[in-house]
């Protein structure tokens, strides 16, 4: 699971500066990986104030090859967060504003006839970047949404019969505005399932807001943000994460948590959700400098990984409630 | 009634149905079968004992095997009702067989009334041993309950099966043939069979077997420690009940004498005798020896005039006996020929021509008896020969099959030593042998098994019943008809022709049959220790001022010429009950004479086991202990003690394994400790959350937890880690156990 041989993936690392070489990436040591992620988080925190948890979650998803859905009101720093992460890892960043008239080709790119060469040339869409911010994804029609979601799942794009791999690392950070429900297309459960995590940033707390105002008074700090690592190192950290031990008790714990949601909700967590929880738990362990996953890691990840995949039985219940019930009743062994 | 009927098939009675699902192996492999087996064993034991005494054990065993085989074959084809009706039929058939087996001469005497009387008598305590054809009866009666309960148990009808088997056992309880242990075994078996039998089909066996075990154990423990019926023949195994009196044991039991353990003497005056001669006042005799008791077989008839005198020459003795307390027996000089006085109407004659009071003789009442005392000479006895009548031969030579051969061998050896060539010489030799080789004591432990064998080879002391039993058995092994007689010794002579007889004069001796002479008494009990014991008891009682131990004519020192010093009949035969007050004095003298020659008393083989060796517990004690153990285990399980004990040991002792499981268990121990002291870890709580929530600061606990996380979730632990974790856990556990902790600290 840690290693998907993608020989062509390396070549397509257009702006990541990654070494195309053979597929095998030398894994970092556990300590080095932990330090790396810590450095990125610290770096991002220079821009994003008081959201260390959210930054960590996004990095965990990134290292765990997942995508993130941010659900929040406008103006809470979603775009800034995505940009900071992209900048910190020295990766390409593209932003797509989803609107009701957005077409699938506006996301994936299109073949354009070049008058000079008399040939069709592929104009890569915004999806060909390491970090893609899909803003207000629920405003686009399902056809366009599915174009992006397909790219997310398969990490490749097919235009006019030609399949093109997406760069590595490839992370989609989609946002969803939940205050304006008019003229939106709610994401189907099947598509929501493809996001490893769903996060809420929330408003900054008292003092933090004052600090944000202070920092942004002159230059915006994002403009001075320097990369602390590169895509190649990040992929080595991914290798490390894949080697973190998932012992039988932990695997069984994840399985029982998922089973609990299935027994206590209209729609429970899919095996894809369980796999995502296992992967993110591995990165969480790495963050703590451990080479094995403990149930504490699982518990730290399960809310953001499971909650959005659950459709509760009653309207008064939320996915978080079901996860909370699973956490309190499933025995840790 | 039956489950098959309830299914709703057309109401057509099917006597033989073949059940395709039934299999013998499944039917037998039921825990309830064990209970049925115990119950069956209990009444089989009684029947086997009967046949052991009267013969026919092999036949009975063959019958048991046959019935079990027939049952196994029939079981798949017979339903419960058929089984019940079938065994009822078998019972009727068996009774008919028994009836036909009774000799035609006796059969003529049996009418409907006699059958009912017998039945009532059996149900009210008449031992099966008293049936003349007890062996045939056993063979006839066995198949019905055995077949019935076996078939029903094989069909899974354990309750009905127990009802059938229980009826059989209950019958033997009423006849008094089933002893304490036998009855207890049967009742425990019945309880187990019903308990397990009802649990098994409900699939509740695994959950509730301990309840049944507890009930059964309680039954055993309570019945063996608490005696509800005081003085019952079945003495409890554990609690010591007060010893019965010799008199109550020997004289009062009308149709049988059980041989018991320790016994005491009653100094109360029973009756006074006016007679021209002193003698043993005989009450009764017993012909069938069962190994542990003596039984009188045959019918008792009403006294209707003169009785036959003995065949040889006799002397007439007339006695007047006055009861000083209520008397249940009619003591008289052997052999009574006529009875006078108020009690004449209520007199019965037993099968061995003894007198018996149909109703108790009240205090102050008196009766006269005329007896024809055999007047024989030693020469007549020596010359008597062995031409015994068939009736005597049939009744008075039987011994249990289980009697060890060494009894006969010892008897033959004793006779050979004395160069005894006639029955009389053999009887004298055996009498002297017992007198001089066994000590007299009232405090003995009732031996198990054959009493004669035990007294001869294992015991060093006993009292009259033991002496008499052993001598009678030894004589029978030599083909000499003998029986045990009971009654009273002469008593205290208070005037020329008057004797006062007390309870402690109760005695047992042997009667040996000589053709042309009749029954001649031999007393193998050494007389002087017996008399000394009796006199000690009287003076004790007098000092203590007990009531009813003296008449106005008896008492210390009133009749000075002690009759023991001058036997009247100097020429009387050795060892016979002459007219002397202590008739066996001559026998003692004879014994001393022989012993002086160094002949008697030199047998050493088969003596008592080395007394210094450890005493092995008896089978009963072992069984009792096993039942207690089993019950203890069941009770412990019922109340969860086993689990607690396991946890206790588990917490305190950790055997070493591989590093990872060692660390895991060390943490489990620490967590168990924390769970007991604070609270258990909740379902969704991780190890770190738990310790944080408890606010545990102890670095050892934290360290063990950290090692555990790495071992359990990371699969990584070094031997050093394991040592550290186990030591920390040991230390933490040790601190919570005060004693253990102190030891550890001091060590």
UniProtKB/TrEMBL annotation, chain A:
The residue ranges of the ATPase AAA-3 domain are 67-195
Describe the location of the ChlI/MoxR AAA lid domain by residue ranges.
259-322
Enumerate the InterPro entries for this protein.
Answer: ATPase_AAA-3 (IPR011703), CbbQ/NirQ/NorQ/GpvN (IPR050764), ChlI/MoxR_AAA_lid (IPR041628), P-loop_NTPase (IPR027417)
Keyword set, alphabetical order: ATP-binding, Nucleotide-binding
- Give the start-end ranges of region Disordered: 1-25
Q: Which CDD domains match?
A: AAA
Q: A GO molecular-function term, please?
A: ATP binding
Tagged with keyword Ion transport? no
Report which residue ranges the record marks as coiled coil.
none
Q: What is this protein called?
A: MoxR-like ATPase
Write down the species. Answer: Halolamina pelagica
TrEMBL record, chain B:
By its UniProt entry, which Gene3D superfamilies does this protein fall under?
A: 3.10.620.30
Q: Cite the Transglutaminase-like domain residue spans from the record.
A: 456-526
Q: Quote the SMART domains the UniProt record gives.
A: TGc
What is any one GO biological process for this UniProt entry?
proteolysis
- Region span, Disordered: 525-618
One Pfam match: TgpA_N
Q: Where are the transmembrane segments?
A: 28-46, 53-76, 82-101, 136-153, 180-200, 212-233
Q: Biased-composition ranges for Gly residues?
A: 588-608
Give the keywords, sorted: Hydrolase, Membrane, Protease, Transmembrane, Transmembrane helix
Record's compositionally biased regions (Basic and acidic residues): 529-545
Q: Example GO molecular function term?
A: peptidase activity
Query: SUPFAM superfamilies under this entry?
Result: Cysteine proteinases
Q: Which InterPro entries match?
A: Bact_TGase-like, Papain-like_cys_pep_sf, TgpA-like_C, TgpA_N, Transglutaminase-like
Q: What is this protein called?
A: Transglutaminase-like enzyme, putative cysteine protease
* Species whose genome carries this gene: Halolamina pelagica
């Amino acid at each position: 699971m840690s290693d998907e041989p993608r020989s062509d993936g390396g070549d397509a690392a257009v702006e990541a500066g990654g070494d195309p070489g053979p597929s095998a990436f030398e894994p970092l040591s556990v300590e080095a990986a932990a330090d790396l992620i810590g450095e990125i988080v610290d770096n991002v925190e220079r821009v994003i104030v008081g959201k260390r948890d959210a930054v960590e979650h996004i990095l965990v998803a990134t290292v765990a090859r997942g995508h993130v859905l941010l659900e929040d009101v406008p103006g809470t720093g979603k775009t800034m967060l995505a940009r900071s992460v992209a900048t910190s890892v020295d990766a390409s960043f593209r932003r797509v504003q989803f609107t009701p008239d957005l077409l699938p080709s506006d996301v994936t790119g299109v073949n354009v006839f070049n008058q000079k060469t008399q040939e069709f040339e592929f104009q890569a869409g915004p999806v060909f970047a390491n970090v893609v911010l899909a803003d207000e994804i629920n405003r686009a029609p399902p056809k366009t949404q599915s174009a992006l979601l397909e790219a997310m799942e398969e990490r490749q794009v097919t235009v006019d019969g030609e399949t093109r791999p997406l760069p590595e690392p490839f992370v989609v950070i989609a946002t969803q505005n939940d205050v304006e429900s008019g003229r939106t297309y709610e994401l189907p459960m099947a598509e929501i399932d493809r996001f490893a995590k769903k996060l809420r940033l929330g408003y900054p707390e008292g003092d933090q807001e004052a600090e944000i105002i202070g920092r942004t008074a002159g230059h915006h700090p994002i403009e001075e943000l320097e990369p602390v690592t590169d895509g190649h190192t990040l992929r080595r950290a991914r290798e490390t994460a894949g080697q973190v031990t998932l012992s039988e008790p932990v695997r069984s714990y994840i399985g029982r948590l998922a089973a609990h949601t299935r027994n206590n909700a209209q729609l429970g967590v899919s095996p894809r959700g369980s796999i995502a929880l296992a992967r993110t738990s591995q990165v969480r362990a790495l963050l703590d400098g451990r080479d094995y996953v403990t149930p504490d890691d699982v518990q730290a990840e399960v809310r953001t990984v499971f909650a959005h995949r659950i459709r509760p039985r009653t309207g008064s219940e939320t996915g978080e409630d079901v996860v909370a019930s699973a956490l309190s009743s499933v025995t840790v062994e | 009634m039956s489950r098959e009927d309830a299914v709703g098939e057309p109401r057509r009675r099917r006597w033989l149905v073949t059940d395709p699902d039934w299999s013998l192996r499944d039917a037998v492999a039921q825990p309830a079968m064990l209970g049925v087996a115990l119950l069956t064993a209990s009444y089989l034991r009684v029947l086997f004992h009967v046949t052991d005494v009267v013969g026919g054990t092999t036949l009975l065993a063959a019958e048991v095997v046959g019935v079990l085989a027939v049952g196994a074959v029939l079981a798949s084809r017979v339903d419960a009702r058929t089984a019940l009706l079938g065994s009822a039929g078998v019972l009727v058939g068996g009774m008919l067989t028994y009836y036909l087996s009774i000799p035609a001469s006796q059969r003529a005497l049996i009418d409907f009334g006699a059958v009912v009387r017998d039945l009532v008598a059996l149900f009210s305590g008449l031992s099966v041993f008293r049936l003349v054809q007890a062996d045939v009866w056993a063979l006839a009666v066995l198949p019905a309950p055995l077949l019935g309960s076996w078939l029903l148990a094989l069909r899974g009808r354990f309750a009905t099966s127990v009802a059938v088997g229980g009826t059989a056992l209950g019958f033997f309880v009423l006849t008094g043939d089933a002893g304490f242990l036998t009855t207890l075994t049967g009742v425990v078996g019945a309880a187990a069979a019903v308990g397990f039998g009802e649990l098994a089909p409900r699939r509740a066996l695994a959950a509730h077997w301990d309840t049944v075990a507890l009930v059964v154990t309680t039954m055993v423990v309570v019945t063996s420690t608490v005696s509800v019926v005081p003085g019952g023949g079945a003495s409890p195994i554990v609690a010591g009940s007060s010893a019965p009196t010799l008199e109550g044991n020997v004289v009062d039991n009308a149709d049988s004498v059980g041989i018991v353990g320790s016994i005491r003497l009653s100094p109360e005056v029973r009756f006074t005798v006016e007679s021209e001669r002193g003698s043993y006042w005989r009450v009764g005799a017993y012909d069938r020896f069962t190994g542990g008791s003596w039984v009188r077989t045959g019918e008792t008839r009403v006294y209707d005039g003169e009785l036959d005198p003995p065949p040889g020459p006799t002397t007439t003795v007339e006695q007047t006996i006055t009861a000083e307390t209520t008397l249940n027996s009619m003591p008289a000089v052997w052999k009574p020929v006529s009875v006078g006085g108020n009690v004449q109407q209520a007199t019965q004659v037993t099968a061995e021509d003894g007198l018996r009071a149909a109703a108790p003789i009240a205090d102050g009442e008196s009766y006269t008896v005329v007896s024809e005392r055999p007047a024989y000479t030693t020469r007549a006895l020596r010359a008597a020969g062995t031409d015994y009548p068939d009736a005597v031969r049939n009744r008075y030579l039987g011994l249990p099959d289980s009697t060890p051969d060494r009894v006969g061998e010892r008897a033959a050896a004793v006779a050979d030593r004395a160069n005894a060539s006639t029955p009389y010489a053999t009887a004298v030799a055996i009498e002297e042998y017992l007198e001089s080789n066994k000590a007299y004591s009232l405090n003995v432990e009732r031996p198990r098994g054959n009493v004669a064998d035990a007294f001869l080879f294992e015991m060093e002391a006993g009292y009259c019943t033991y002496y008499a039993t052993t001598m009678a058995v030894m004589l029978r092994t030599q083909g000499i008809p003998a029986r045990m007689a009971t009654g009273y010794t002469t008593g205290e002579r208070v005037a020329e022709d008057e004797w006062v007889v007390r309870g402690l004069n109760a005695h047992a001796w042997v009667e040996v049959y000589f053709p042309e002479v009749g029954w001649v008494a031999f007393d193998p009990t050494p007389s002087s220790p017996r008399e000394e014991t009796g006199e000690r008891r009287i003076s004790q009682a007098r000092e203590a001022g007990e009531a009813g131990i003296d008449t106005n004519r008896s008492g210390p020192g009133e009749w000075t010429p002690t009759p023991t010093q001058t036997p009247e009949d100097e020429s009387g035969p050795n060892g016979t009950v002459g007219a002397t007050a202590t008739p066996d004095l001559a026998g003692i003298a004879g014994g001393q004479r022989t012993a002086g020659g160094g002949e008697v008393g030199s047998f050493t083989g088969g003596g008592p086991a080395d007394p210094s060796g450890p005493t092995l517990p008896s089978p009963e004690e072992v069984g009792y202990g096993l039942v207690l153990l089993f019950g203890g285990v069941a009770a412990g399980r019922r109340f969860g003690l086993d689990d607690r004990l396991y946890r206790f040991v588990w917490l305190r002792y950790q055997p070493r394994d591989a590093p990872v499981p060692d660390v895991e268990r060390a943490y489990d121990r620490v967590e168990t400790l924390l769970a007991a002291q604070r609270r258990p870890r909740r379902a969704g709580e991780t190890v770190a959350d738990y310790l944080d929530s408890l606010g545990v600061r102890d670095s050892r606990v934290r360290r063990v937890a950290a090692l555990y996380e790495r071992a359990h979730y990371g699969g990584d632990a070094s031997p050093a880690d394991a040592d550290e974790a186990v030591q920390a856990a040991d230390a933490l556990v040790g601190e919570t156990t005060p004693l253990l902790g102190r030891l550890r600290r001091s060590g």
